[in-house]
Amino acid sequence: MKAIVVTDQAAGTAGMTLVERPEPQAAINDVVVQVHASGFTGDETTWPSTWTDRVGRDRTPSIPGHELAGVVTALGYGTTGLSIGQRVFGLTDWYRDGTLAEYVAVEARNLTPLPGDVEFRVGAALVMPGLTAWQALFEHGRLHAGQSVLVHGAAGVVGSMASQLAREAGAYVIGTGRAGGRQTALNFGAQEFVDLDNDSLEDVGEVDLVFDVLGGDIGKRSAGRIRAGGTLVSIVGPPEARPADGLAVDFVVESDRAQLSEIMQRVRDRRLRTNIGSVSTLDDAVAAFNPTERRKGKTIICVRS
Ligand SMILES: NC(=O)c1ccc[n+]([C@@H]2O[C@H](COP(=O)([O-])OP(=O)(O)OC[C@H]3O[C@@H](n4cnc5c(N)ncnc54)[C@H](OP(=O)(O)O)[C@@H]3O)[C@@H](O)[C@H]2O)c1
User: Cα(157) to centroid of ligand 1, in Å?
Assistant: First the structure.
């Protein structure tokens, strides 16, 4: 099968190459999925799991990409709950070969049925940003109606999903980012926008939750914006400052079938939309992940048309 592999950690995404690889076999409780659409997170080449297995052994050449939508083509020993020919989408194990390939072996529990009226590219584009935003807001942030949330990077892939979900849950959403992201952030549900290069973060009133996708100085200064009992949730490493009377949580997104179903329901009801920036083929994927200019939105690789 055709697949993108990485072998050189120092090379980053520039080290990606399109090669022929053996098709994966389904292990116990796995399915093999014929990948139709795949997603990749920009900094995967910095994750330890891209390079080693769980006991730290080199696993290169490894296939990156952990977001997918496709069709089940084989079941492993003991696999239940999914059927050959079924449309599925989900997040794959960080430590196993990923989805920038024609086929991938995935544990069945990491997959959710993809409704027949939803395009593969939409399914693939929802998985990582949808689950990350959901877990940040509702699991770790315990956000509920009537509360306020400061969403950093609100024009970005994860931030645009978080703004929509928070707004739909009845929260007041203040988005942040660069000046050029203002209209996008407002279009995705932010009710106010803070231009981090020109406005003062300190002028923002107190909020119940900060969702930080930027980190650094912005993350640190955000802790001071949180009212008593509130939470700072980060997806870019342990927060450097915690709220005076609140929690600071850092997490890595996890598979969750029930949450993906909730997210998908909102897409079908037109309460939620994806932020797809560009769509490429597997043959063009290396170029798509190494653009000559900054690309906005999620890059989706359509492996099968
Ligand atoms: N822990 C987890 O489970 C998890 C899951 C998913 C993603 N992540 C991480 O979350 C981060 C965000 O991912 P994403 O896909 O949403 O990225 P993205 O689409 O690039 O979004 C980031 C947004 O923030 C803006 N921004 C970046 N730096 C800024 C700065 N210094 N000041 C103001 N605005 C700034 C960007 O604007 P421009 O486009 O103009 O630069 C963009 O709108 C990445 O580091 C990713 O690896 C973590």
Answer: 7
